[in-house]
Design brief:
The complex is a heterodimer of chains A (78) and B (341). Chain A has one domain. A three-stranded parallel sheet of chain A has the order 1-2-3. The radius of gyration of chain A is 13 Å and the shape is globular. Chain A is 32% helix and 14% strand. Chain A has 78 residues and is an alpha/beta fold. The longest helix of chain A is centred in the middle third of the chain and has 19 residues. The N and C termini of chain A lie far apart (32 Å). Helix content of chain B is 29%, strand content 18%. In chain B, the strands form three sheets. Chain B has a seven-stranded mixed sheet, with helices on both faces. In chain B, strands 8, 10, 12, 13 and 14 form a five-stranded mixed sheet that branches. The chains are: A alpha/beta (78), B alpha/beta (341). Chains A and B meet through strand 1 and helix 2 of A and strand 8, helix 7, helix 8, helix 9 and strand 14 of B. Strand 1 of chain A pairs parallel with strand 14 of chain B.
């Protein structure tokens, strides 16, 4: 998709694999079975976490990159 | 005189680049663009009687093949040639599909693209010969192609010596050494410093040039896509849970949430308990809609695209990516959020 000109944020847990296969924009998530969630949180906190992941993804697709780049979500602001 | 029909894309037909990637199938008598050089290389015994082309986005979509085949058939070819497509994904997909369809009709055909082209596996039984990576390598690529055209026109099959790449149908042969002897020979070769020797080549990962960023997400059309196999609860289109061969689309129009019980993941590669408790853990529609309402996302695309990324072949995964990109581009989508499990 990136090659065809569509900047694509890959939200995934296995960032090392994502980097190795050359995904240009990577947002790390917390677990394989729930990329945009975290069942250990309460409902409101989980939704807030999901929102931050999506916001980070939006920042990633709006940022120029030249190689596989990880866009971590700031864990401090939780 | 051998009648040759040549398939190319809109760019090599001289119609333009991405701005004309949606032009419909069309054809013209004679050689066009790279076909002129190919005709020279083929010499007087061959004539490129027609050139067929289609825009890349259109060609990678559904239901275009009948139109393309009708144009090819109308020119009554003895041999059909597609490409060279280099590493261009949508163009390669079209070249491979045209070649596969033509081969299925019993017409001699050869496609030409780089071995890393994501379309290559779509060629089916049709032979593919290697081009260079980029159009700068047109000259040597056309020489390989011309030699291959002569062979297939003569009814001969192509081998790796002709530059053949992609799926080469397996044939049973009898070898002199047992598998144990061959395995030891490979170990010895490796100990001797040969890192390439193998009887089973593995897929390679190519380099991806990142897309230009979106200038302003607050005015952009953004799509949600996933390999997390989230589908309506009854899985109405029977998405596979592993080794997926296809992808699906589901409407998000009028939806603000994906309720548990209405959607579930059929992915076979992880426990879907958490996904089924709250489908937004796979497709984050709830917060994406919220961000759209607040103006942080211009518009959310009206459907999400989905497959199951579980033991998926690299070839199929590449094809899904190419098809997703073409589909999204046709609908004006400027960026995507891809959730992966």
């Amino acid at each position: 998709m990136e090659r065809a000109g569509i900047p694509t944020a890959l939200l995934c847990n296995l960032t090392s694999i994502a980097e190795r296969v050359g995904a240009p924009r990577i947002v790390p998530t917390r677990g394989i079975p729930y990329p945009t969630g975290d069942p250990s949180l309460g409902a409101e906190a989980e939704r807030a976490w999901r929102r931050r992941l999506v916001e980070r993804g939006l920042e990633a697709v709006a940022t120029a990159v030249h190689k596989p780049t990880v866009f971590p979500v700031d864990q401090e602001s939780e | 005189m051998t009648r040759v029909v040549h398939y190319i894309n809109q760019f090599f037909a001289g119609l333009g680049g991405e701005d004309t990637a949606t032009v419909p199938p069309a054809s013209k008598e004679g050689a066009v663009g790279p076909g002129r050089k190919l005709a020279q290389l083929l010499g007087d015994d061959y004539e490129i009687v027609a050139t067929v082309w289609c825009g890349d986005d259109h060609a990678a979509g559904p239901e275009v093949m009948d139109d393309l085949l009708a144009l090819v058939r109308a020119a009554e070819p003895d041999v059909v040639v597609t490409g060279p497509a280099f590493t261009s994904g949508r163009y390669g997909l079209a070249c491979a599909r045209v070649a596969a369809a033509v081969a299925a009709e019993g017409i001699a055909v050869v496609a030409c693209m780089h071995p890393d082209n994501p379309g290559i596996d779509e060629a089916g039984t049709a032979p593919v010969v290697a081009s260079g990576e980029v159009a700068r390598q047109m000259g040597p690529s056309l020489e390989t192609l011309a030699a291959a055209v002569r062979k297939v026109a003569a009814g001969e099959s192509l081998t790796a010596d002709d530059g053949r790449v992609g799926k080469i149908p397996r044939r049973n042969v009898t070898v002199d050494q047992t598998s144990a002897e061959r395995a030891v020979a490979l170990v010895l070769a490796r100990l001797g410093g040969d890192r390439e020797a193998t009887e089973v080549p593995l897929p390679r990962f190519d380099q991806v040039t990142p897309a230009q960023p979106v200038a302003d997400v607050t005015t952009a059309l953004i799509a949600l896509v996933t390999e997390g196999a989230l589908v309506p609860d009854a899985n109405p289109d029977s998405l596979e849970s592993a080794r997926a061969t296809r992808w699906l689309r589901y409407s998000l129009d009028g939806r603000d949430v994906l309720p548990a019980g209405e959607f579930r993941s059929v992915h076979g590669g992880f426990s879907t308990v958490w996904a089924n408790e709250d489908p937004h853990r796979i497709v984050p529609l709830d917060v994406a809609r919220q961000l759209e309402g607040e103006g942080a996302i211009g518009t959310l695309h009206g459907e999400y695209l989905v497959t199951a990324g579980n033991g998926t072949s690299v070839g199929n995964a590449r094809r899904f990516g190419v098809e997703w990109a073409a589909d999204l581009r046709r609908q004006g989508v400027q960026a995507a959020l891809l959730t992966a499990t």
